[in-house]
């Protein structure tokens, strides 16, 4: 079955960097658009970034644009999120998500994604 497993979360000081990864199995990774979402305690899950199945198209939320970079390695079936200039408000559980895609687009809404990982905690201290 499809499995998405996030890793790389942890505790980092404000201004620092962290890279989280999402290892995919049970699917043909290169056929799926991928996304990162996050959810803080007491808040709704929010979109962070998305990437097309080839990696040629990306999108970011305004909150992370210019600080975070989404990328993928289709040969390794792995999705990445490089997070720089981290702020305390970036503290959340980060989830990766996958959705079958027939074209060069990506998805921005959580309900558009069929498969989800279990999440990895990122905590940014001030």
Describe it for me?
This protein is mainly β. It is built from no helices and 11 strands. The chain has strands at residues 3-7, 10-13, 18-25, 32-39, 46-51, 58-60, 68-73, 78-83, 92-100, 115-116, 120-125. Strands 2, 4, 5, 6, 9, 10 and 11 form a 7-stranded mixed sheet that branches. The protein has a 4-stranded antiparallel sheet with strand order 1-3-8-7, with no helix packed on it. A hairpin with a 4-residue loop joins strand 7 (68-73) and strand 8 (78-83). The protein is globular and about 40 Å long. The model has no long low-confidence stretch (mean pLDDT 97).
Question: Topology of this protein?
Answer:
Elements: E1 3-7, E2 10-13, E3 18-25, E4 32-39, E5 46-51, E6 58-60, E7 68-73, E8 78-83, E9 92-100, E10 115-116, E11 120-125
Parallel strand pairs: 2-11
Antiparallel strand pairs: 1-3, 3-8, 4-5, 4-9, 5-6, 7-8, 9-10, 9-11
Helix content: under 10%
Indicate the proportion of strand residues: over 45%
SSE pattern, N- to C-terminal: EEEEEEEEEEE
Q: Report the span from N to C terminus.
A: 40 Å
**Shape descriptor:** globular
Rg over CA atoms, rounded to whole Å, is: 13 Å
- By helix and strand content, what is the structural category? mainly beta
Low-confidence stretches: none
| Biggest sheet overview | 7 strands, mixed
How many separate helices? 0
């Amino acid at each position: 079955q499809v499995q998405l497993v996030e890793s790389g979360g942890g505790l980092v000081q404000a201004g620092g960097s962290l890279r989280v990864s999402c290892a995919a199995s049970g699917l043909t990774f290169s056929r799926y658009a991928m996304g990162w979402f996050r959810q803080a305690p007491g808040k709704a899950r929010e979109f962070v970034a998305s990437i097309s199945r080839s990696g040629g198209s990306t999108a970011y939320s305004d909150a992370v644009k210019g600080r975070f970079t989404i990328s993928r390695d289709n040969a390794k079936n792995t999705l990445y999120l490089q997070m720089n200039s981290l702020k305390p408000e970036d503290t959340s559980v980060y989830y990766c998500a996958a959705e079958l895609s027939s074209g060069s687009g990506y998805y921005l809404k959580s309900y558009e994604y069929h498969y989800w990982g279990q999440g990895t905690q990122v905590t940014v201290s001030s």
